[in-house]
Amino acid sequence: MASHTDKAKHLKLPAMSRRSLLLALPAMPLAMRAMAQQAGAQPIPTTGLHSFELRVSDLDRSVEFYQGLFGCPVLTRIGDTVSLGVGNDGQYFTLAQVREGEQPNISNFGLRVPGYTRYQLQSLLSEHGINRTVDSFYDSRTSAMQRANMTWLRRLPGESDTMLADNHELFVADRDGVPIKLSSPDDCGAGDESCTPEPAPTEGLIELREINHLTTFVANYQLSNEFYRRLFGLENQAFQAQFPTLGLGNGTQFLMFVGGMQDGVPSQTGRIDHVSLNMENFTVASVLERLTQYGLSPRGDGEPAPLQHWVTMRMPERGGAEPDGTPEVYFSDPDGLHLQLQHHTYCGGGDEFGGTCNA
Fold this sequence. Notes:
Radius of gyration: 22 Å
Number of domains: 2
Structural class: alpha/beta
Largest sheet: 9 strands, mixed
Shape: globular
Strand order of the largest sheet: 2-3-4-1-5-9-8-7-6
CATH superfamily of the largest domain: 2,3-Dihydroxybiphenyl 1,2-Dioxygenase, domain 1
CATH architecture of the largest domain: Roll
Distance between the termini: 28 Å
Order of helices and strands: HHHEHEEEEHEHEEEEHEEEEHEEEE
Number of helices: 8
Strand content: 25-35%
Number of strands: 18
């Protein structure tokens, strides 16, 4: 493979006129200052995954589906969103009605960042070269990639039209345009307001313990990993083939980025493929039995359809258990969104339950 030096010898750069050079000079100190800021910026500490959001086609149907399966309490009802609690450690996920022209998707995930105000976090993000914008600034754009490396405050629905931070949520988009919500560990989906949980109408068939990980398809997985290492100080927890898992919080949670090695700016927005939830009393047979009891059917050939379940074996060459691999259980919700269910020790590594991580 040719070195960068060899490539440079054959690279023909366009000539720059004296006038063009003089016009560019005033911007050079700003660019150099921005690079220096990024080089010296300290990582923003996080204590783990906090939330994720599903954009769904029928909000009431999805609330009924997830409460019936998991027995999740309702934490908040704000506008056309409902937040459901996960486990006993303050995690939650939000169900939101799709916007006009939007397809159902896993739209964002949240990280816990203790000890900071939203405005302090925006200042820290600016040190990493991430610029401030406002939610309405990019909402009408056709390309979600235009929010990449941006941070903004999103006002929660309600009567208040003020710009006070307490009725806003803080987001930052990574290099692939994937939004991340940064919030206090006490946040329950209502900004700085407290939540009064509404118990689920039924107990649910599966008891969730925590949000475990998200897997996202990106243009260049190495550059995405570098982005998260630099911004949040994350480190490798395990490897699945060439793809590292970036550890979060308590030693089981992680983020994973898979995809190609596209040079330069990504040509399309990153896509969160699935969310994984850890659970109590996990065995493959018992989980499939409960999913079937709830009305889901086994996946056939081809791509999974809504309301199906399936198992894949992550083999030893992808970090799974010797010799037959680590089973990973998936299901699709009423909109066909993919979720994974695993044992509460799952960390993306080896052994029967994927709980051996020593990267």
